[in-house]
Specification:
alpha+beta; three-stranded antiparallel beta sheet
Amino acid sequence: MIFGIGVDIVETARMRRAIGSRWGQRFLEKVFTTEEIARCSAAPDAAQCYAAGFAAKEATVKALGTGFAAGVVPLMIYIPSSERSRPRIVLQGIALEIALTSGITKFHVSLTHTPTVACAFVTAETET
């Protein structure tokens, strides 16, 4: 059964400005895990990779029903690399506690991007 859905779109140029600013490294460390930073920094277009990851985190908190509130922060949502290129969502901390308390057993995520935007769609699912 669907618990919630979330969608988010991030402009690649906006992400490029954020990571290129004097606070860029601080921003990355507050939003992305070390593995996510390493993966995106090595990508052909780092800003596009970060934009897709940020959109996935935003879409996840929308599906969770909290937004970035109730103690949920971006670092609690992790999008690990996958050998099959199929993205997935891993929660930690309060975000994980909220999901478990809500009966969420699975997240489905779809990411897409163009040279100018990245989009993520997330569905949170319960058993019944």
